[in-house]
Design brief:
heterodimer, A: alpha+beta, paralog of FGE (formylglycine-generating enzyme), three-stranded antiparallel β-sheet, 8% strand, B: alpha+beta, Glutaredoxin, two-stranded antiparallel ribbon, 9 strands
Amino acid sequence: MVTVKGGVYLPLYGAADQLIDVDSFMMDVLPVTNTDYLKFVQENPKWKKSNVKALFADKSYLAKWTDDTSFTGLPDAPVNNVSWFAAKKYCECQGKRLPTMDEWEFAAMANEDVQDARKIKSYNQYILNWYEAPRTYNKSVGSTFKNYWGIYDLHGLVWEWTQDFNSVLISGESRKDQDKDSNLFCGSAAIGASDLMNYAAFMRYAFRGSMKARYSSQNLGFRCAKDIEKLDVGQKDL
Amino acid sequence: MIHFKHILLVLSLVAISCNDTSKKDSETAEADILENTDSEKISDMSIYNLPSQWTTQDGNEIELKELKGKVLAMVMIYTSCQAACPRLVADMRNIEKQIPEDKKNDVQYVFVSIDPETDTPERLTAFAKENEMEEDKWLFLRGTEEDTREFAAVLAVNYKEISPIDFSHSNIISVFDQGGELAHQQEGLGVDNKETVQTIIDLAK
């Protein structure tokens, strides 16, 4: 894990112009892989494909696994087709947790060189090119760029679960909600430098808004995060 | 040596947290067996698979499981809510009114707070009182932030804190059968509740 030094940022999505404070936290350098996940289900049989409760994972859970202990694809490709419940439990079992959406977004706005690259054309173009590339979930973790924090693959392989993914209120089903997020749609009205950025992030938020916690998708994996405690000074020695 | 200590410490921490989960798992497994012998197994899709602890408006600690056996009508609200929640409360009351007398006892109406920090048991009690919902059939629950997020995930209720006293959230009333399986959901405010009422009537004994 690496430390992401906290700060203030303006999320694309949220209350208008409300800056969000993000505390320093630790984040996995790489997404959880097939190999990692296999170990998890072996140690926690309740999460094997044939055992998992339907409340916690839909039918596409580990869809490409041929049985309870055989994945297909590269051992070091990101695990995909996992539900939010499964991802959450995995992280808990590592003594970690899923990153919050703000933590994830905060870490993911970095490119190789700067903390916030969201206005840099090449950063946005990279994300959009990824959206167009097929089957990136089949690639090895660590095969995209290493960002400012030392974290890989936040963009380029799979989307990732966040702890509070269900705080996005823009799915088709929430159209009846009192409080639509018209903020998100404003981007389409303005033609300007921030369009690419808005579009790239909009896709991500819209995807989150469309998911339910028991759903799984081949384009969706996860990584874990952790609060910073004094103890972690020791852990760095590992 | 210092390094070694750290490693041990870290390892033991990791072990503890996973042990906790496996302990929970085995407890659930035992519970499953007990339920089995009781010939009333908790089904795969039952919300009673959720291990979370909740506090009621009276300050009692309960597990969801304890609600098993009744039809549940559930909604997520927060008491400082000005706009949608009074409507949702009215919707729940309206549903309750339409349930025939002989079935009323089999239905539990549950309000789960999405703002556990503000919605203390005292606050929930006051809210119940204001809304004249002091009878046993009205249950107000508050959990940890994490369990609340998980519960919302199960209900497919999305919510987001806009400010310390304001949330935006999906307006969904969910009906669960006696075994905790989702039977019906109605979404929106003041919508036609005919189907919701009918589902409850069909399920209730």
